[in-house]
Amino acid sequence: MATQKDSRASELIETLKRKINERGPKGILGLIKIFKEMDKNKTGKINKEELKAAIKSSIKQGVDSNDVEVIFKELDTDKDNLISQNELLKLLKGTMNEERKKIVTFVFNLLKPQKTDHVNIIDMKKKYNKAKHPAVLAGRKMETQVEEELTNTIDLYKECYDIKGEVLTKGQFIDLYSNLSTSIDNDKYFEEMMRNCWGINQEQLKEINEAHSEPLLESSSEETKEKVVVKKVKKEVLESSEEMKVTPSVQKFRDAVIPRGVKSILGVERQFKIYSKDDCLELDNIKKIAEDFRLQIDPKDLETLFKELNKTEKGKVECSKLLQILLGEMSEHRRQLVEAAFPPIDKDNDGIIDREDISRIYEAWKDPGVKSGKRRTDDVLHEVLEVLDNATALHRGSKTDGRYTKEEFINYFGYISACTPNDNDFGNIFTTFWRVDKSKLPSIEKKEEKKVIEVESVNEDNEDNEDQDE
């Protein structure tokens, strides 16, 4: 039976692990680097004061000096006032489970040149598809952030283990991801990140799954089917307006921007306004914006898009029209849902809400990152308010004052809606975070089901014609 003392030490060790993991891979790697700098004699051991200094330097706050003494006493089993760095790191890192290790090993074999036992770091960075990273797709991070994190993690890992040159062995590649894995508690998220960023295709996915009794990753056949249905639904919604016909070039433009998330859409819109003259853009402006954001779209498709929108043949297109075809129209039942969320926030019933009102209603603690201990509620709320500010500032054409009208609130959700193809998922945003009663959702869910069935039916009827077109 564990003593109260043992229990206290275990709780503090878990707290230390959580605090380190909150900093991502640089948390554990940063601690390794500090230990290395302290261990001048290469003994692989540290004393109590060194541990205090290392933890204080690494996580700043959350574990105080007295807590470290309890942890140290627990780990100093032979009572020589020294503890093993490796044992401590092993305790904090844990072991990457076999399922994750299989995926990481598969990626290593995918990346390494034939007849070699290493991967080239420069090639790794080139092949890493940051645009498909789950955090980018969800709008939580920009591609540049993800790219910088990968580079910094690799550089820090090399520094910690004195790796010279630009290659990693199989063991080093797996160990690199072991450090990254420790800050991701959700297996599905880890698997999605590996699949998206390293381009694991259907056949390769099958190869990984065959090594396990249960599939590690969900087959993308259903996912592909869903994407086809979603794309058809979005096309149907857009085509309800005569001014927004979804041509192939329009769809390619949307596909290049929308999957990157809300922040990317706002960034592109901001560039529209910077480059525009009298709210209009020339073709070269659009190409430059696509280049600045590294959008995966052929310049020829942009030329076609420009011709389709430039009906007056004045050599310019309106920014508002370009944004309209990018976002699409928010459906009526989605707009009703947003409108239903507004009154509880607007406690004064004056048609204006502010940051304090939103902070009172928005349940940031339900964010998966907060529940797993990787994010703070303040950070989640700040992110929501930041995006709302940016969307409102673009809408007004001036800085915000922390106050928002109902129309500006709806405008903000127009961006969220563009990045959320499924009506049920969109509805869950409100029932989960904005305290909207679920009783308001059944009619919405029913409409979504009916629309998808209709689209699938159309898809089946036209399948032969589409094959002939290809």
Brief synopsis:
By secondary structure, the chain is mainly alpha-helical. It has 26 helices and eight strands. The radius of gyration is 26 Å and the shape is globular.
Characterization of this structure:
Mean pLDDT is about 75; it is low at about 1-5, about 210-245 and about 445-470. The longest helix is centred in the middle third of the chain and has 20 residues, at about 220-240. It is globular, with a radius of gyration of 26 Å. Helices cover about 65% and strands about 5% of the residues. The chain has about 475 residues and is mainly alpha-helical. It contains 26 helices and 8 strands. The protein folds into 4 domains: about 5-95, Recoverin, domain 1, CATH 1.10.238.10; about 100-215, EF-hand (Recoverin, domain 1, Orthogonal Bundle), CATH 1.10.238; about 240-325, EF-hand (Recoverin, domain 1, Orthogonal Bundle), CATH 1.10.238; about 335-440, EF-hand (Recoverin, domain 1, Orthogonal Bundle), CATH 1.10.238.10. It starts with a helix and ends with a helix.
Total number of helical segments? 26
Which stretches of 5+ consecutive residues score pLDDT under 50? 1-5, 212-243, 444-470
- CATH C-level class of the largest domain: Mainly Alpha
What helical percentage do the residues reach? 55-70%
How many runs of DSSP E, i.e. beta strands? 8
Strand content: under 5%
